[in-house]
Design a protein that fits this description.
The complex is a heterodimer of chains A (about 240) and B (about 425). Chain A is an alpha+beta fold. Chain A is built from five helices and 13 strands. The chains are: A alpha+beta (about 240), B alpha+beta (about 425).
Chain lengths: ~240, ~425
Amino acid sequence: MTKLLITEITRMGPAFCVIGLQREREKIQSIRPIPSSRHSWLNFPHQRGDILECALTPFPGPSPHVEDRVLTRGFQKSATIPEPEIVTYLRKAEVSRSLPDFFECSVYENKTGSGLYAVPGEAKRSICGCETKNLRLELCANQLRATLALPSGEVLRDLPVVDHDWRGFVDAALAPNRGANRAARLERFLNSHFHYKLMSCPHHFIRLGLTRPYQDFCWLMLDTLLPLPQLEWLEEF
Amino acid sequence: MTPSSIPRFDEKHRRLLEDCFRREAGSSTPIPGDDVDLIETGILDSMGWVSFLRAVETASGAADLGSNLNERSASFAVLLSALRDSNSTPGVPERLDSSRGIAQTPALAVIAASSFTVGSRVIPSEEVDRAFGMPAGKLRSRAGIESLAYVAESENELTLAAKAAQEALRAASCGTQELDWIVTTSETHHDYPSLSAQLHSRLLVRENCGALDVGGACLGLLNALVFAQSLIGSGQAQTVAVVTADVHSRTLTPGRVAGEFGGLFGDGASAFILRSAAGNDSNEGYRLGEFLFGCAGQYAAAIQVSDTKDGGLTVQFDGEALSRAAITRMEKVLASVELRSGIPRGSVGGFATHQPNPRLVALLAKQCGVSPSTFPPVAQVSGNLGSSTCGAALHEALRSASKQARHDRRPIFLASLGPGLLFGGGWLTPHD
């Protein structure tokens, strides 16, 4: 049995993608448990910070999604750790300070519009963590997007935010029962209070991931943004 | 906005939307109906929709369209409405002249004359190879550089700048007392008094002629031009001299930097006399159109230069990443200039762009689908001249146009880059 600390739950469309950390000897590495028949979960009843016991088998996933493992038995929850401790472990897993190191390959810009991508055959992994110098979230035409500055000074713009909790927070903020001017109020919050909360948090950390190959490219996305949003923040705007 | 202008306005922006949409979705994808929700129908996914919006923002100059489209459908109709709202902001100029289909805008500043000069020593690139300890022929075969222009002992940024400025003033029949501002840019002059102050004294202009130094390294010329255009447009100035001067051969020396970097650069200067279009009684010259600027921070680590405590220079230079960035970003800038100006790239007479090295210029021409001959060959014979590269190319494009009959003169596109990665672009049209 493998012990997996759940660190990522992402959402694109109706499905969830899950990543956890596994300790192998002294090394902590990211593992993506997947069902036997697909790459994502339609239902995932666990939370980040849960430690799950499960049985996984290696899966000959094509590069760069080398973290894929097929779940053969599980998940059995054995414990939960708090958010700051999750970050302690994430900092010991795959980390980078500059763009070419993220996926150990060149990253290209979309020639026609926005977005960054890696070429599947060139990228060596599909997930990596980082401290950021600055980060901004914005709602762009109903889509949550992140712009962030890496320690190297490189700036990544318009990254789709697929973090399940952050997307849930935005959905809750825009719920019709929240009154008028919801998008404008959310945007004001993201530009002011949120920015302070995020950047002053001692366990601020992000993880970037690559999409599955789509039209020959794997696009960069913001998989995880810590600290996670809290429902009481909704009372502030 | 008068009621009669609304359809014309929508027509211009519809064309822009359609161009951006084709780039995003592919030329074979039919243009959707105005009310079709592009995401709900699966024509674009959410990433494609944001990418499309960003392209429209850049091409139209409308900032932050995305935040105005929250809680609205992803349709052409909504985008057109947002574009109309953004353009109704007072002070935003009319962009296109539908009668000719090309840009006729801000129409405020005209380049009346220009000049370009290089260091007086012409050094074969093989000699530079040897000086930097590289195999002879490397600069020629790898970068396409045949020779480099280096200053003589008696020359520096000021002497080159003064020479270029005086020639431009002469060509414009403009006395130095007519200058209201001198705007200079240099990526190698870091002394005080600054270059603009020194040039002010050297040219003996009026005491109350302003002097300003602008940065941006290789993008410096475009920064200087947009500032000069703004001075003229706001009525602060009637005549402005924009001058670039760069002397790399004293900074990027063997032993201080690697030859693969330092060997690319030469020394030169350029100058442009800008006048108010209203006050310019001659029909000569080219009128400055709009400019677009930005910073593609994902390439910030590709080129970094800093001083060290012991007086040395630290250069971080990822040649491969920088080459890729330069081509991708300049192509993108030129595409945006094309969209915003309404001038097809095929009808452009000259591309005055930065030229990191001749090989990249050839590649850029190929990527853009235009003839390499429309890029004046500056770097090939003089090397990369920093902020003066774009100036040299612009001067050559203007000189070439001046030899043609007035009705045969064609627009000129500008595009340049600076570390950061700063980028900028713009266009000029014949003044008539």
